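I'll show one example:
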Amino acid sequence: MEQSIKRRIMDKAQEARLLVKPLVGEWACIEDSDEEILRTFLGEMTGKISLITMGYDQLKYTIDLMSS
């Protein structure tokens, strides 16, 4: 079960990297979590640090809107 959880975390981090790649190219280190990748990207793009309260789905949705 622990392997399954680790795999899901890795899959989400990879999904986050792929989501921001068309916008900025290679962005994050492999150690970053999914939310860290998206939060850092959005913080850099918008200049806002108030994104801490946003979860993965909200962050992903915001980036989807930016890339449309």
Remarks:
- The radius of gyration is 12 Å.
- The mean pLDDT is 80.
- The chain has one domain: 2-67.
- Residues 10 and 48 are 26 Å apart (CA to CA).
